[in-house]
Amino acid sequence: MAWSIAQVARMSGVTSRTLRHYDGIGLLTPAYVGDNGYRYYEQEQLLRLQQILVLREVGVGLAEIAEAIDSEPSTVAALRRHHARLLAERQRLGVLADTVARTIAELEGEGGDTVSPKINRPENLFAGMDSAQYEDEARERWPEQYEQSRQAVQEFTPEEAEAWQRDLTAQMVRMAELKVAGAAPDDPVVLDEVDWNYRAVSRFWQPDACAFTKLGEMYVNDPRFRENYEKITAGLAEFQRDAMAAYARARLS
Question: Please, what is the Cα angle at 217 between 227 and 139, to 5 degrees?
């Protein structure tokens, strides 16, 4: 049995445009192309598409997906490996869920003080999070900045990397406290806090006013980054974005 590209798009949730892109890069070739010019897919292609989507879900880039699939001796062997990877991801997400639950408990604890919430151990905010899932995308979208950042990270000792994570988390919490206290994004105190963020980013690559503003916009527009900020306090992603834009206008223009 064969399914048209429109049918495969409906059943998989992948757009026809994406399926044509997968064909164009040799990742998913249809079983055949009909006289009407439409692509048709059979069971073998549907199984391969499932593997592609599973690997995308766990953060594998398109460039590595074909090699990962084709390196297995059979479809079943590939699926067994993907299953093991998903089980590991489920465990990681369990840790992440516990992290969020602990943060909620801390923010709502101690008498339910939600006016000026405090985090007892900021370094615990990001337990279970895996920044490696962003690497392929960053490499594709910003190759020059990615290479600069990669080289800078390689120079970190484990102790420096741990300290960096603690400092970054603490800075996000300080921004949350300023927001909850009612500070405006262009308040000098807020801009001084953003200055720490700018200097931290500049350890990896040097953004100009436009790039730093767009970085702040990404914290809101990309649901993955937005979620990290919103875990600390509601509206923090927008506050961070507006503060970074104000900083760019005031100190980078």
Answer: 80
Q: Report the number of distinct structural domains present in the chain.
A: 2
Torsional sign, CA 96, 98, 101, 103: negative
Task: Name the phi and psi angles at 103, rounded to 5.
Answer: -65, -45
Determine the Cα–Cα distance for residues 202 and 77; give it in Å rounded to an integer: 44
Location of structure tokens 């949730």: 13
**Phi, psi for 33 (deg, rounded to 5):** -115, 125
Are 103 and 33 part of one and the same domain?
Answer: no
Q: What is the pLDDT of residues 109-165, one digit of tens each?
A: 654 444 444 444 444 444 444 444 444 544 555 566 556 555 655 666 767 776 777
The CATH number given to whatever domain includes residue 54 is 1.10.1660.10
| Domain identity same for 133 and 101 | yes
Can you read off the two tokens belonging to residue 203? 């350890």
* 63 and 94 both lie in a single domain: no
d(CA 200, CA 206): 10
- Domain with 167, as residue range(s), is 84-252
Instruction: Report strand pairing: 32-33 vs 3-4.
Output: unpaired
Question: Long-range contacts: 223-232, Cβ < 8 Å, 24+?
Answer: 224/134, 228/126, 228/129, 228/172, 229/172, 231/100, 231/103, 231/125, 232/103, 232/119, 232/125, 232/172, 232/173, 232/176
pTM of the model: 0.46
